[in-house]
Structure to design on (376 residues):
């Protein structure tokens, strides 16, 4: 791997060729101080780092031809070294008149991930992947059946965000130019199993421009199947993102079947950690509950869930029942609408704020992992 000879007394920053299974280091992987050091190691003044950050995070480009405020003789070297290509579009599917766009990405090593951009009348949301595949092995989840290939780097996640933000800014999504408002870590993978890269991404998302994308932490949602120690660690980060707990059953017997990590941390332990998150941050927690026909959609389970949530106080939680987006050949399917309505009504009778999650993209293999599974 070539290294740049630094000025006397400085240590070179390794940025180029990847090691096996590890993506090349990218500008978005670096802290502001590391970015400044990187450009110095390339023979430039430290202020060039801020110029690069402005192009990448504000103008959403890594194209050296657009960086006209940088010396022509060095912009190609800076871009080649600090902005190595990490993602390649392999497939793009559209639904809802082009306002829902699902992208299958190939990573540098052939790993596959997906992201989904959803534009609504007054907001836009991007669902990103944090891992290639997933090791949680939830049987109703397309990604869970793929197994875990590897964690994504911070830059591989940020690049999903930048690409979507650029599409919106350029007016490629129907409705005219717009900003990306919301980011949810609900794509492929278990975000808290890739804690370091996910938090690196979150810090980049919420950092003020031009050091980051300038998003509000309150518009960032981090989902988990219930990795209790990481949930408690997240509470202490001082970044008030929304925590979403993918529960899917209120009783240990069924949840251990649907969410195998439940054999390590039980329903009550996961709910206690979620309640702790609210206590520390003041941010209401979302409970995600995929409604699966004749499996977890019984009225008595709604009552049990309501009792367990209320036992931990009022006003700390919101439940999002999600009609299951079935995968081809799966025995799992969505609940009957009448059963779904009864489930919601029971929760509301317990005083639990409950909103059915909008499920876009069912006609474009909307469930995360479906496109990657097809390629496999």
């Amino acid at each position: 791997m070539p290294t740049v000879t630094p000025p006397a007394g400085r240590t070179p920053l390794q940025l180029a060729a990847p090691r096996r299974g590890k993506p090349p280091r990218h500008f978005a992987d670096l802290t502001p101080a590391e970015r400044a050091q990187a450009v110095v190691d390339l023979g430039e003044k430290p202020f060039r780092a801020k110029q690069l950050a402005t192009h990448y995070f504000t103008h959403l480009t890594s194209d050296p031809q657009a960086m006209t405020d940088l010396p022509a003789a060095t912009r190609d070297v800076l871009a080649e070294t600090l902005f190595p290509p990490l993602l390649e579009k392999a497939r793009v599917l559209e639904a809802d008149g082009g306002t829902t766009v699902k992208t299958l990405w190939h990573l540098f090593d052939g790993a596959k991930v997906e992201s989904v951009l959803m534009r609504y009348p007054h907001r836009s949301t991007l669902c990103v992947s944090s891992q290639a595949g997933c090791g949680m092995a939830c049987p109703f989840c397309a990604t869970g059946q793929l197994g875990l290939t590897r964690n994504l780097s911070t830059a591989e996640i940020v690049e999903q965000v930048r690409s979507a933000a650029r599409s919106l800014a350029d007016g490629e999504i129907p409705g005219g130019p717009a900003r990306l408002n919301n980011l949810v870590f609900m794509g492929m993978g278990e975000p808290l199993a890739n804690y370091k890269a996910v938090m690196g991404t979150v810090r980049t998302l919420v950092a003020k421009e031009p050091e980051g994308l300038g998003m509000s932490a309150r518009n960032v949602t981090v989902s988990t199947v219930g990795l209790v120690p990481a949930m408690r660690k997240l509470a202490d980060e001082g970044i008030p993102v929304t925590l979403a707990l993918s529960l899917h059953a209120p009783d240990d017997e069924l949840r251990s079947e649907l969410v195998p990590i439940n054999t390590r941390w039980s329903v009550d332990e996961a709910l206690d950690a979620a309640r702790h998150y609210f206590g520390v941050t003041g941010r209401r927690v979302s409970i995600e509950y995929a409604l699966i026909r004749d499996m977890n959609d019984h009225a008595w389970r709604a009552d049990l869930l309501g009792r367990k949530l209320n036992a931990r106080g009022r006003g700390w939680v919101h439940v999002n029942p999600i009609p299951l987006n079935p995968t081809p050949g799966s025995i799992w399917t969505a609940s009957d609408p009448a059963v779904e309505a009864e489930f919601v009504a029971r929760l509301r009778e317990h005083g639990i704020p409950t909103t059915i999650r909008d499920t876009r993209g069912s006609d474009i293999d909307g469930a995360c992992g479906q496109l990657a599974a097809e390629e496999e």
